[in-house]
Specification:
By secondary structure, the protein is α/β, with parallel strands linked by helices. The chain has helices spanning 27-40, 56-70, 84-93, 110-118, 142-151, 210-213, 238-274, 296-301, 321-338, 350-353, and strands at residues 48-53, 75-79, 97-100, 125-130, 158-163, 188-192, 204-209, 218-220, 225-227, 279-281, 287-291, 305-307, 310-314. Strands 1-7-6-5-4-2-3 form a 7-stranded mixed sheet, sandwiched between helices. A 4-stranded antiparallel sheet has the order 10-11-13-12, with helices on one face. Helix 5 (142-151) links the parallel strand 4 and strand 5. Helix 2 (56-70) crosses helix 3 (84-93). The chain is globular.
């Protein structure tokens, strides 16, 4: 259906809510997509502003820029396991950025956050909250972060951006998950459109409060419009892809896919552990973390993302049990060859995923071959 538009140069330049003098656009689709996300995150049509970005990085850059403009002397706080785009934005905007320690799960260490806030009480706080960290899929506790800010005396002197690149579109459909909503004192939320939603073109969505974005908006005479985006021109095809997906699947479809991903992630974690592979899975996450394979050819074959001693698999809606079984079987076979017929030496990854998930000899975990 969308193929017929591929020969058009569709440019949603400037503000999605204001017409410009460029007529080949898809603003009506973009606004419909934004309205869908505004309802998901509990903010009224006349209270929000947003646009469809080129990806999660741009969403983070926009959210943190709004925070910087509201609090020019503010300090960015982000956990060490935040996406690298957060630290890139801090460098670009020349804003002091304080890294917060994390727990073994990848979640923010709130005691360290509390301590570092008290060291900078004279400057407002711009806080990046992870709704699913990049490597471990950990979710920072938004409510606890808000309480900590208020307890440390930052009432009305903080801005919170929620980086929900992947899990931001999953947790609204998990009954027991904490709510990420504009009914709480947050400033912005961003998600990716090419991850869980599966858009064939990299893209994302960022939503912020209308009253806040005014600090960025400027009139552009030659466009006969206004602009508060990062890039000015942004893709006019991606709104149509996202609009099509949202209408095809609906809330019920997304809920079903989220449940499938969580179920399959638990299945993969259990299969890995049954074969003696150290592995862990955070609650409310579909990101399975395990010991890094000993062969880069294997890593390249399965396109694994690795960091230090660990790798991860992000279980998405298109991944079935058959593929997961094939991956585990291939890993076990290759793992044996890496050890050249000797007894398998399980690396220690306790510092990365916790002693309870580590099967190395030091932590008294014997491989349980299924």
């Amino acid at each position: 259906m969308l193929a017929q538009f591929q020969n058009l140069s569709i440019n949603n330049v400037g503000d999605p809510f204001i017409e410009s003098n460029y007529g080949v656009h898809s603003r009506q689709f973009e606004v419909a997509v934004l309205d869908w996300f505004a309802r998901l995150w509990d903010i009224q049509r006349d209270e929000y502003w947003g646009y469809i970005t080129n990806g999660g990085t741009e969403g983070n850059m926009h959210g943190l820029l709004v925070g910087r403009e509201l609090f020019p002397d503010g300090v960015i706080y982000a956990s060490r396991e935040s996406h690298y785009s957060v630290f890139k934005a801090a460098r670009m905007y020349r804003v002091e950025c304080i890294k917060i320690d994390t727990m073994v799960s990848g979640e923010m260490n709130y005691a360290d956050f509390h301590s570092k806030l008290l060291q900078n009480t004279g400057k407002p706080a711009i806080v990046n909250v992870n709704i699913g960290t990049t490597v471990k899929g950990a979710i920072d506790d938004l409510d606890r972060i808000i309480r900590t800010l208020e307890k440390c005396g930052f009432q009305d002197r903080f801005y919170i951006h929620c980086d929900g690149a992947l899990a931001g579109l999953m947790i609204p459909f998990i009954k027991e998950a904490p709510k990420v909503t504009f009914k709480k004192p947050i400033g912005s939320i961003s998600v990716s459109g090419h991850k869980f939603m599966g858009c064939p073109i990299p893209c994302g969505v960022v939503i912020t409060r209308l009253e806040h974005v005014k600090v960025l908006a400027m009139d552009i005479e030659y466009l006969s419009s206004r602009d508060a985006t990062i890039t000015g021109s942004h893709n006019g095809h991606t709104p149509m892809f996202l609009w099509y997906t949202l209408n095809k699947k609906g809330y019920r479809g997304f809920r079903k896919e989220v449940q499938k991903c969580l179920r399959n992630a638990h299945y993969l974690t259990n299969r890995l552990k049954a074969m003696g592979v150290s592995a862990s899975l955070n609650a409310l996450s579909s990101t399975v973390v395990f010991e890094r394979p000993g062969d880069e050819v294997f890593v390249h074959k399965w396109q694994l993302a690795c960091e230090g001693s660990i790798a991860h698999v992000v279980v998405m809606p298109n991944v079935g049990v058959e593929l997961l079984d094939g991956f585990v079987e291939d890993l076990v076979i290759k793992r044996s060859s890496w050890n050249k017929g000797k007894d398998i030496s399980v690396p220690c990854v306790a510092n990365d995923i916790g002693a309870g998930n580590c099967f190395c000899l030091h932590h008294n975990k014997k491989p349980r071959i299924a």
